[in-house]
Amino acid sequence: MHTLDGKVALVTGGGRGIGAAVVRRLARDGAEVAFTFQDDERRADAVVDEVTTAGGRATAVRADSADPGAPVDAVERVVAAHGRIDILVNNAGAFLLGPLAELSLAEFEQTVAVNVRAPFLASQAAARHMSAGGRIVTIGSNMAERTVFPGFALYAMSKTALIGLTKALGRELGPRAITVNLVNPGPTDTDLNPADGPNAAVINGFTALGHYAAPDDIAATVAFLAGPDARYITGATVNVDGGFTA
């Protein structure tokens, strides 16, 4: 079912992993999807080719989410090309780990720039152009609710900030019939955290279901929140973590 026919979406960090799965799913559901990528043009082109071969529409835009001008520029480019933006998925993220005593100021600033500032600026820019029925979905992390390993202080802090941003924007944009929600994935099979990695068995043990998610599992939740059936859900955090935070 093409529940997103006629919609225009922007997915940040859509060249790989969860972001690429979201791009494919939104396009499959009928949206015209633009997505940002930072460096790997070959991989981004492969996502575009995959979507196009399946009958969808996608375009790739090079952008570095650590640059404060990049999120706004990406939104404006989408609006200039398509005349509108209906769906924003804030997915790009920085994943910098380490003991508290060893984390540098540069790592702090990089993490906050990508994980907090970029979603704020992109949401601000997109909201200026969205009409009733607009959707903002941000990808957070289950580490915002349960941090079971050392070395996650910086990452967990940045992802926790998204809970407050989601609630506040949901309240502010609600009168305009624009919904804002947060998806917190748990262990997901990506390049950064493969399901067959050296720590996978331990990580699986923290979930109720005993296994990693596939990126498509996260994308399915994003697609639901971006679609018409989620029109009465806003300011919410949805954990897609196999029971990790249960």
Describe the global form. Answer: globular
User: What's the tally of helices?
Assistant: 7
Beta-strand proportion: 5-15%
Class by SSE composition: alpha/beta
Span of the ends, CA to CA: 32 Å
Q: From the alpha-carbon coordinates, what is the Rg to the nearest angstrom? A: 17 Å
**How many separate structural domains?**
1
Total number of strands: 7
Give the % helix: 40-55%
Major sheet summary line: 7 strands, parallel
* CATH level-4 homologous superfamily: NAD(P)-binding Rossmann-like Domain
Describe this structure in words.
Keywords: Oxidoreductase. This is 3-ketoacyl-ACP reductase. This protein is of the alpha/beta class and 246 residues long. It has one domain: Rossmann fold (3-Layer(aba) Sandwich), CATH 3.40.50. The protein has 7 helices and 7 strands; from the N terminus they run βαβαβαβαβαβααβ. The protein has a 7-stranded parallel beta sheet with strand order 3-2-1-4-5-6-7, sandwiched between helices. The protein is globular. The chain starts with 7 loop residues before the first strand and ends in a 6-residue tail after the last strand. The mean pLDDT is 97.
In short, what is this structure?
With about 250 residues, this protein is of the alpha/beta class. It is about 40% helix and about 15% strand.
Core attributes:
about 250 residues, alpha/beta, Rossmann fold, 7-stranded parallel beta sheet, 7 helices, about 40% helix, about 15% strand, globular
Q: Topology, pairings included?
A:
Layout: E1 8-11, H1 17-28, E2 32-37, H2 41-53, E3 57-62, H3 70-82, E4 87-90, H4 105-129, E5 135-139, H5 153-173, E6 179-185, H6 200-205, H7 215-226, E7 237-240
Helix pairs in contact: 1-7, 3-4, 4-5
